[in-house]
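LAB NOTEBOOK - FOLDING QUEUE
OPERATOR: T.R.
BATCH SIZE: 2
PURPOSE: Compare the predicted structure-token outputs for two unrelated chains run back to back under identical settings.
PRIORITY: normal
REVIEWER: second-year student, initials M.K.

ITEM 1
FIELD SEQUENCE / FIELD STRUCTURE:
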Amino acid sequence: MPRRYPPLTPEEVIAILLARGFFLDRTTGSHAQYGGTIREQFCRATVDLHYRDLDEWMIKRLILQAGLTREEFYGSVRESARKIGLRADEYPVPLQ
């Protein structure tokens, strides 16, 4: 059984955000802020770049900041979807 919130690298999180239409807004030190519109609402997600893997707490915060569900977040790219055992016909998984 896959973990509910498997760890992701900052590069994987950035790929997820870019797949959802986010853009790099600014970088300050080791924090990159990405902005994007989800469900007609502007969202800003901050990715901490100096960690090797982001733990469950950070992943939950990023999902909340991005305005996505767990399945929409991990289902944005095929590699992260496999980590939670999600199979879809197309990636990114459509928003609900």
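ITEM 2
FIELD SEQUENCE / FIELD STRUCTURE:
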Amino acid sequence: MFHANGKYDNPTADNLSNMELHSGASLKETLHYGQDALFNDFRQYDYGSDKENIKRYGSTTIPLIDLSKISRDIPMYLYVGEEDTQADMKDVEWLLE
């Protein structure tokens, strides 16, 4: 899968896990996940055109998602591995703040 150092590359396992990676997720969700990673924050979905973004958000600027509005009363589990290339401890600690 997404291994920066190649240490855990296994093409056979990767093919199997890629089939399940976004099982049940729409293309839009997958693209939105990529946008969040690209911009290093949490924004609404960027529709890729000023016209569509204005229609949806009233602006060409994509609004940030206010994470402070997420209730702390909801049980939430964040997982991270020592060599996780998708989320490291720094990212998880930032999200918890």
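REVIEWER COMMENT (ITEM 2): DSSP finds four helices and no strands in the chain.
FOLLOW-UP: none requested
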